[in-house]
Amino acid sequence: MAQPFPLQPSLWAATASPVPETARLDTSTTADVAIVGAGYAGLSTALHLAERGIRVVVLEAREIGFGGSGRNGGQVIPGLKYDPEELVGMFGKERGERLAAFAGGTADLVFDLIEKHAMDVPRTRKGWIQGAHIPAGLEQVRRRAEQWGERGAPVRILDKAEAQQLLGSDRYVGGWVDGRGGGIQPLSYARGLARAAQKAGAVIHTDTPVTRLTRTNGRWAVACPGGGTVTADRVVVCTNGYTSGLWPRLHETIIPANSFQVATKPLSDDLRRSILPEGHVSSDTRKLLLYFRLDHTGRVLMGGRGPFREPKGSGDWAHLERIVGKMFPQLRGIGFDYRWCGRVAITKDFLPHLHEPAPGLLIDIGCQGRGVGLQTAMGRAMAEYVATGDAEALPLPFSPIKPLPLHALHKLYVSAVITWYRMTDGGMLT
Fold it and tell me: Is the keyword Protein biosynthesis in the record (predicted)?
């Protein structure tokens, strides 16, 4: 049998702040609320509940930030996949504007929490640039900037010359910059949320997968291997792209796509000044978008879509390495120190979903690749709902769990679509 590809530590694992002290749960305990998953959503929910004096136990199958929360690109981008006017069209004026305001404030919450709790998180907040890679993308970015500008966001349109100057690449014909965005060390942030939650009174158990949820006499029993059990009034499930069969058919409501990333060797001072010289983070208007930034160690990070399967070898990142050299010719031949990937949860409508399939059970799933801010804010909203029972605290209404039709075939279908996009996405660099 072939041996699995030996993955290197990600850049984030290699440079993160120390791991908070946790232990495996192997006894029985009680809580007001049990939370499954120690990513941004679960940890933010735990923090905001614990600050209210509510007894919280967090159960994580691996380690804090093991999933997408510790393996994303570290870009903190406000908003959703839809523009504000699209949200109004989907949900009506009042609900749509409220959702847009929620989404527009997600980046603020991340940076506010880092400051409030003095988290050891390398960060920058110079804004997010969305570059238009072809002329047809210019109308999209103009419309987006106009709608957010009308709602008070610090945005501006970039012409071709300014986009190329701020990005350090001649591959874009224009774009827009949103001053609310920024970048963080994402695993350090997850660990910072965990420390803050622990300080507020939450208990976090790692290496503790949840195997079963059962409800008896109005309370939930959350079972773990080795005899560990949490009895709680409420359960919040925040497993996102790593969702398995814990609740019937939940995993069939998403496509867990892998997002692949590479990081170069540290750049010289001259090279650093030639790429994203003012410290912006960036992603573009491609259907198969590229996202890139400089990190706190002076490396260029490039991210994009890769195979749905787990990687088999370093060749699974070769397309991103080629893109770095084509987008930034000055980096050709520089070499790469890190290659890694993490799963994002894609829903059919490209929106996060909230489910309440049984009394006292709340499920949050679907980040569409914007999880840093979105799931942090979702955690705060879910904590408000759990504490008060007020569904108006939630940015979205509950929806039923609706598996994707022919779910088992969706990866094949999406893989075919990705291949088509690579062939037809104007200005593609691969």
Answer: no
Domain ranges of the chain: 11-71+187-253+351-403
What CA–CA distance (Å, rounded) separates 100 from 353?
15
What pLDDT, in 10s, does the model give residues 335-358?
Answer: 999 999 999 898 989 999 999 999
* Beta-sheet strands, E only, within 125-223: 128-132, 155-158, 174-178, 182-184, 203-205, 212-216, 219-223
Neighbours of 201 (CB within 10 A): 16
Measured at the alpha carbon of residue 404, what is the angle toward residues 364 and 260, in degrees to the nearest 5? 65
Whole-number Å distance between alpha carbons of 246 and 383: 21
Distance CA 118, CA 192 (A): 8
Residue at token pair 């290699």: 14
Q: What radius of gyration do the chain's Cα atoms show?
A: 21
pTM: 0.94
Strands 203-205 and 56-59: parallel
Q: What is the CATH number of domain 11-71+187-253+351-403?
A: 3.50.50.60
Q: How far is CA 148 from CA 35, 93, 97, 352, 423, in A?
A: 34, 15, 11, 20, 32
Query: How far is Cα of residue 356 from the mean position of the Cα atoms in its chain?
Result: 22
- All residues at 6 or more sequence positions from 234 whose CB lies less than 8 Å from its CB, including other chains: 32, 33, 34, 220, 360, 361, 362, 386
**Nearest-angstrom CA–CA distance, 169 and 330:** 10
Which pLDDT tens digit goes with each residue over 79-106? 999 999 999 999 999 999 999 999 999 9
Position of tokens 């804004």?
Answer: 127
Quick: pLDDT tens for 114-167: 999 999 999 999 999 999 999 988 999 999 999 999 999 999 999 999 999 999
Q: Are 345 and 365 in contact (CB under 8 A)?
A: yes
Give alpha helix (H) positions in 36-83: 40-50
Query: Sheet holding 336-347: strands in order across?
Result: 155-158, 174-178, 128-132, 281-284, 291-294, 300-305, 254-264, 336-347
Quick count: other Cβ atoms within 10 Å of Cβ 400?
Answer: 9
- What pLDDT, in 10s, does the model give residues 180-234? 999 999 999 999 999 999 999 999 999 999 999 999 999 999 999 988 999 999 9
Q: Which amino acid is at 80?
A: L
